[in-house]
Amino acid sequence: MTPIFRFASTENHPMRGPRQHSPSISYRYFTESARSRCRHGFSIAWPYRPSRIGRSALHPVGNARRMGKDNYPNTGRLRHMPIQTYALHPGFAAEASYRDLSERLDDTVIAAIGAALKTYPVLVFRDQHLTDAQLRDFALRFGPLEIGRPAARPGRRRLAIPQIGDVSNLDEDGKVRALTDKRRLDSLGNRLWHTDASYMPVPVVFGFLHAVTLPPPSPFGNGETEFADMRAAYDALPQATRDAIDPLVAEHDIFWSRAQIGFTDFEPGDREKYPPSPQRLVRRHPVTGRKNLYLSAHASHIVGWPVADGRLLLLDLTSHATQPGFVYSHDWRVGDLLIWDNRCTMHRGRPHDEMQPRDLRRATMLDTASTLDEAA
Ligand SMILES: [Fe+2]
C-alpha cells in the first residue's frame, strides 16, 4: 500500500480550527515511513504503527479518542511524549501542547521544551493561565531572569515581581495610559524590529510572553507580534556577503533605537546606566551550531566603519531579514504563552487599540556571556 500523507493545515488542525476530526479517518495512513510526523501534523516520538488492538496511547489523537475526550488533556503525561509540536511556520514557529504549565513540571518536560526550541525558536502554548509567580517560576527552570529597564527604575510599579516585565498599556493603578504618557512612548520602540536587550553587554536568551488581557480588533492592527527567522535570513544571503559580514561587530544602543521614533525623554542617569554595547553581527547558535544574523533596532552602526556606511548595511540586512517568507505573525489569544529564542530571532509588536487595556506579562532569561565571547 502506498502511504498517503496529508499534512494538517491550520484550518483543520484539531486543536485550533473549527473543523473536527472525521471519525472515518483511517489509521492505515500511519506507517513507519511516516517517520516522526503524523497526518495531524504532530511530531511523534517514535514510529507509530497501526495496531489491530486499537489506537496507540502514544498518539495524541488516538489517545484522546480512547479516553473519550475531544481535546488532549492527558498527552503531557504520556511517556516519550512530554509535548507535541505542530508547525505554524516550517522550521521556525510551532504550536506546542501541554496541559498546564503552571504545575511543577518534571525535568523531562523542561528538556522537551528546550529540545523543541532548537527546531522551533518560536513556540506557542495555548490556553495557559499563569500567575506572575508561576510565570517567573516556569521561566526560572531555564535559567536566571532579567530585571528589565522599566522594572529597574525607582518608584511604584503595577506588577510586584521585578522579574516580570509589564508589557501593557496600563499605569501603576491599572488605568490605560494616555497617548502622551512617557512610559508608553518609550515602549513604542518595541514596534521596531529588535531583539530584546541587545543594548546590554550580555544580552538575553529566551523570552516568555503571556497574554492576560487583549483589546478588541482595531483599524490599525490587533497587537500581533511578528517574529523573523534570522537563521533562514542568513542562509539566504550570497556566500560572498556572508563571508564579508561574518567578522563584523555592531554597536547596539537603546538611545539610538528610541531616537528613531523621536523618543529622547530618558531619565537622568540612564545614559551612564545603559552605555552602548558591541555585539557580533553574525552569531553561531551555541546549542545548534547554526549561524544567524544578529540584528536589532538597537544596532546603531558597524564598529570601525563610517557611521553612515554601517547604518546603511544594517538597514539593508534588516530589510532582507524581515521579508514575509522569514516572518511568522502571531495573533494573540488570552492564555497564550509564547517562548522565543532572542539569539536567532527578531520580533516587533504591531499597533492595537490604544484606548482599551492590553496586558501581557514577560519573563526573560539572561545569557551568561557577551556575543563577542561566542565561537565565530
Ligand atoms: Fe521585545
What this model shows, in words?
- The structure is a single chain.
- This protein is an alpha+beta fold.
- It has two domains: 110 residues, no CATH class; 243 residues, Clavaminate synthase-like (Double-stranded beta-helix, 4-Layer Sandwich).
- It is built from ten helices and 15 strands.
- Strand 9 and strand 10 form a beta hairpin.
- The longest helix has 15 residues.
- It comes from Rhodopila globiformis (Rhodopseudomonas globiformis).
- InterPro entries: TauD-like_sf (IPR042098), TauD/TfdA-like (IPR003819), TfdA_dioxygenase (IPR051178).
- Belongs to the TfdA dioxygenase family.
Q: Unreliable segments (pLDDT under 50, ≥5 consecutive)?
A: 1-14, 16-40, 42-79
The helix count comes to 10
C-alpha termini separation: 49 Å
User: What would you report as the Rg, rounded to the nearest angstrom?
Assistant: 22 Å
CATH homology superfamily name of the largest domain: Clavaminate synthase-like
Task: Identify every distinct bound molecule in the structure, by name, code or SMILES.
Answer: fe (ii) ion
Instruction: Please indicate the count of domains.
Output: 2
User: Which outline best applies?
Assistant: globular
Helix share bin: 10-25%
Strand content: 15-25%
The CATH class of the largest domain turns out to be: Alpha Beta
The succession of helices and strands, N to C, reads HEEHEHHEHEEHHEHHEEEEHEEEE
CATH topology value of the largest domain? Double-stranded beta-helix
Overall average pLDDT: 84
Question: What structural class results from the helix and strand content?
Answer: alpha+beta
How many beta strands in the DSSP annotation? 15
Q: From the coordinates shown, what is the CATH architecture of the largest domain?
A: 4-Layer Sandwich
* Sheet with most strands: 7 strands, mixed
* Largest sheet: spatial strand order: 1-2-3-13-5-15-4
